[in-house]
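Our working data are protein records whose layout never changes between entries. The record below serves as our worked example for the rest of this section:
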Amino acid sequence: MRNERIGDYLVGQGLITAEQLQKVLEAQKESNGSKKFGDVVVELGFMTEINFTKALAGKLRVQYVDLDNIDINTNAVQKVPEQLARKHTVIAIAVTGKRLTVATNDPVNFIVLEDIKVSTGMDTVPVLATTTAINKAIGKCYSMQNVDSVIDSVNAMAGDKISAEEEESRDRVESAPIVKLATTIIENSFRADATDIHIEPFEKYTRIRIRVNGDLVELMSISSAVQSALATRFKLISGMNIAEKRIPQDGRFTQVVDGCTLDVRVSSLPMVHGEKIVIRILSTGQIALRKITDLGMSDYNYQLFESMLRVPHGVVLVTGPTGSGKTTTLYAALGEIAKPNVNVVTVEDPVEKSIDGINQCQVNQKAGMTFAAALRSILRQDPDIVMIGEMRDTETADIGIRAAITGHLVLSTLHTNDAASTVVRLVDMGVAPYMVATSLIGVIAQRLIKVLCPACKQPRMSTEEENELMGIPESIEIYEPVGCQNCNNTGYKGRTAIHEIIHCTAKVSAIIAAGGGKEEIEKAAKANGTKLLRDNASVLVQAGQTSIDELVRSTFSV
């Protein structure tokens, strides 16, 4: 049993097919042994990293641990030097007498375990964890020890008087404390699963906040004397003009954190007390992992969405406010329909994540490369599927709709509050109702909704008013947030999406062609089986996944 190859074991367990095993072995052979079997299985999308690691733990009869959801002992971490932990991709998680429990991605590599034993003088007990989780834990546990020393050195630097010439000089900008601070801010924000970082200058201090699960939380405060040097550092690495401080600027750079390459967008805006810097973090390494099944759709909505993507030509629109995951949904849809025998072209502003095998084109307003101009050229490039980042104006919407009528599948986004008002918006933008009716396949409206922390959520019975909001006849047990160490005292951990999908059937198309309003379209869609955003949020509240506050915040309308 122990000598059975991992591939044969996975096939025997029904986790992959014999054909998939053959493809993995061929890909591994092509890499000349530079890639491990597990890496190739995950890369090809046959298994997730977590599922493969659990299967490996079962085969080797080693305990699997989920590092994201366990308390790691700080004393244990400190027993293994950071350099050794990074070299072998291991992290010590617990101490029991003279035994040290070590999470590793390779529990049968006895050289690594011996190395740790020599360094610590303790017996090592290996447990299995994913490489991603180990790298993240290494970054989190060791960096927290470094943050205080970085801030101390930065504040000490702020105590020195900085002359104007020195402040502008590149040497000053490259000085170690500021470089370390900038790197630490990005690293700690990424490890806290933040999407944005706000560096806000005030008269006496500079506040640094991060957006986690849609809410801003304070990361740290630093001396206002350091603000200018920190802003200059971010402007320098993102390719902005560091001498210009009177006008807004935009830039971008990449940074590797815990083995994951981040695409970092930077925006600067002059304020009364200096420049406010807002940084958007995009993880480029995880685009291959997001499948259409990972979008958090209910089974009913998933089937609707999948049937819409099977239509050979027409328009599929994804709508919702900024930061509601529209682009993620579009990329997942592209991954589903982009086969080797079709030509997929996208026009985006900017290209958020580069996807292998898809032709991606970036808008450049200064050079005259607008959405409309790019779209006209794309239609001469023999595309089968076109993705438009956003239908911002009448011209773009008109060309997109015409492209759908002439036999292309067009995917795009719009900023509207719900699915039914999207149709009305297109008509308001100047697209003829009959063209919208003949080309539109369907509309997906979505929102991101916070998920309750499973460790601390508290049950209670719902009130009459809440029953009315959820559309249920009698009181049921629902949960509300409390806050604990696991969720940074917010009461929520992570987010999921809720969707409202309108399928343009013959009846809905007839209403659109006749110039029907939002209410008419919504009524026909509901009769057709569409579940509204509030219905989906209500299901999550009843299942104990989210709170009634989140239902109100994301779906309330007057």
Q: What stands out?
A: Confidence is low (pLDDT under 50) at residues 162-168. The chain has 23 helices and 18 strands. The first strand starts at residue 90 and ends at 96. The two ends are 64 Å apart (CA to CA).
